Amino acid sequence: MNSTQTEQSATMLIESSPQIRSRVTTARIMWLVVIALLPAGVWGVVVFGIRSLAALLISTAAAVLTEWLLNIALGKRTIADGSAFLTGLLIGFNMPPQVPLFIPVVASVFAIAIVKWSFGGLGANWMNPALAGRVFVFFSWTSGMSSWKVPSSLAGMPDALSGATPLGMYKTGMMELTGSGTGTAEFLRNQGYVASRAAQSIADYLGGIFGSRPSEFNIDLFLGNTAGCIGEVSALLLIAGAIFLLSRKILTWHTPVAYIASFALLTWVFGGLSFGNGFFQGEVWFNLFSGGLMLGALFMATDMVTSPLTGRGMIIYGIGAGFLTFLLRFFGSLPEGVSLAIIIMNIFVPMIDRYVKPKLFGRVKKGKGE
């Protein structure tokens, strides 16, 4: 062996896998998701006021404090990974603007202490902690979780509409018009709904280009000029945040596209049946932009711990979530169905991962090789 070979062998390192490493860490992923959510959160504070900011801050603080106390008690060091902060923020996003402030505290403590840590901490929980906390307080304090506020941009709306979200009006008011063929926007307009100036301007502009004027109500839903939970109202800003995560390769398209597409298709084909309007009469845009569908599809169903590992598995998971959301919204007793649909699909994730496995590199099926 010459001197060059001796020098090369001396500098060689033998290590176990993985040999290919990434700079992406758990903390980096969590904080990038927080950044993606901030525009929607800021918008919620702008249109709903300072009380919504208090709900966001207190839910986040409660989650971080609970995580810190459990770290001390159990001798762990995971407080800096950002997962508790993100869980608390998402719980705040799922709170009504007028929620009693003890409710987000209870939701955050339940999410961190019961759902996350009782199963072993980050990576071991079987359901999305933020959704579990939201569902727990919803069924425990339903009245407090059903107190809504009209955005400041729609302050001219009557009090009759300030007590319900668009989905709530759709579920209760439209049922009285079964078979009438009345659309959601027309129904709300008859009830005194007044579109925002932004929606009117956009509708006029698009009408001049395409020859048909879109619904001002659907535009307000897309922008976030509607009653709802603090962080769910602006579909535009949630989609922008998801695009940011896609560009950073933190999020993949599989679950959101499968979820939204399956729900939209079912709504279009069967959604009109609930109101006696026949097949292919469902109000797709209204149902896509109202409630927590965008927040759930883009930021809750895509939780890495509680979603499948493979692309095919994510598609199956997303289709299942879309199907369950459709059933719960149109045929259940509650106007919303996103949280329950995602939690139910979380239960099926281990089974999906078991039967939808990635192909092992270099493996040859029997009969096709020596």
Record keyword descriptors for this entry.
370 residues, 0% strand, globular
Task: Characterise this structure.
The structure is a single chain. This protein has 370 residues and is mostly helical. The chain has helices at residues 3-11, 26-48, 50-74, 83-93, 102-116, 129-140, 159-162, 166-172, 184-190, 197-210, 216-223, 235-247, 254-270, 284-289, 293-300, 311-331, 338-355. Helix content is 59%, strand content 0%. The protein is globular.
Strand and helix layout:
Blueprint lengths: L2 H9 L14 H23 L1 H25 L8 H11 L8 H15 L12 H12 L18 H4 L3 H7 L11 H7 L6 H14 L5 H8 L11 H13 L6 H17 L13 H6 L3 H8 L10 H21 L6 H18 L15
Helix pairs in contact: 2-3, 2-4, 2-12, 3-4, 3-5, 4-5, 4-6, 5-6, 6-17, 10-11, 12-15, 13-15, 13-16, 16-17
**Count of alpha/pi helices:** 17
Query: What is Rg?
Result: 24 Å
Residue windows where pLDDT falls under 50 for at least 5 positions: 177-181
N- and C-termini, Cα separation:
38 Å
Q: What fraction of residues sit in β-strands?
A: under 5%
In short:
By secondary structure, this protein is mainly α. The protein has helices at residues 3-11, 26-48, 50-74, 83-93, 102-116, 129-140, 159-162, 166-172, 184-190, 197-210, 216-223, 235-247, 254-270, 284-289, 293-300, 311-331, 338-355.
